[in-house]
Write a structure and sequence with these properties.
single chain, 214 residues, alpha/beta, 2 domains, four-stranded parallel beta sheet, four-stranded mixed beta sheet, 10 helices, 13% strand, globular
Length: 214
């Protein structure tokens, strides 16, 4: 069973360099603009609404929509030398309001404004300082560090991880009116699970638990 999903870019130069600005003359006008936005919304929503924990494995450029995609993931692991930016303000682009939520899920409002107002590029140290990434490592250690994080999550009780992820996502999505019935049901399923019995038994026997997700 899949317990954690890792997203990474193709090749060594970038997680994603974002959209091809040279195509905006056609892609950002009329019906094409609506289709372009719909495609992006679907991609971002698919990652944000994924029930499994997601990790962005970042190496190189992480720009524009690429950074947005990384922010849609639950966690981000980056290699030294990576760089981050949303240069919309430097291109005269109105940043879609629906894409602000991932920014605010990772950063304070002040930091999100700094990224959008300035359009500046942040290096890996700045990204770590402001909380844009969770973990930073050398390029050679990126694979190992990302897999280690995924493995740590995967070895925990899946229902517990699911309940925690759902609660955090729900409070970010609907802070004024979260679906407590849903969240209470997910917590109750943890206590009614075989994994709850396994966790307590393993603790008493001083051994590592083996969770099955049921």
């Amino acid at each position: 069973a899949i317990r954690v999903i890792i997203l990474q870019g193709a090749g060594e130069r970038a997680f994603s360099a974002g959209a091809d600005i040279s195509e905006f003359g056609e892609a950002r006008t009329g019906d094409a603009a609506q289709a372009y936005d719909a495609l992006n919304h679907a991609a971002f929503d698919a990652v944000m609404d994924c029930a499994k924990p997601t990790i962005a494995k970042i190496k190189g450029f992480c720009m524009g929509g690429g950074l947005e995609l990384a922010l849609c993931c639950d966690l981000r692991v980056a290699a030294e030398g990576s760089s981050f930016a949303i240069p919309a303000a430097r291109l005269g682009i109105g940043y879609n309001a629906r894409w602000i939520r991932p920014l605010l899920s990772a950063l304070s409002a002040s930091r999100a404004k700094e990224i959008l107002f300035t359009g500046e590029r942040f290096d890996h140290m700045q990204a770590r300082e402001i909380g844009l990434i969770n973990r930073l490592c050398s390029p050679d250690a990126l694979e190992e560090e990302t897999v280690r994080l995924a493995q740590t999550i995967a070895e925990n009780a899946p229902l517990s991880v699911r309940a925690a992820k759902a609660a955090i996502d729900e409070f970010l999505k609907r802070p004024e009116n979260p679906d407590y019935a849903l969240l209470d049901r997910l917590v109750a399923e943890c206590f009614a699970s075989e994994d709850y019995v396994e966790g307590r038994t393993a603790f008493a026997e001083k051994r590592k638990p083996v969770f099955r997700g049921c």
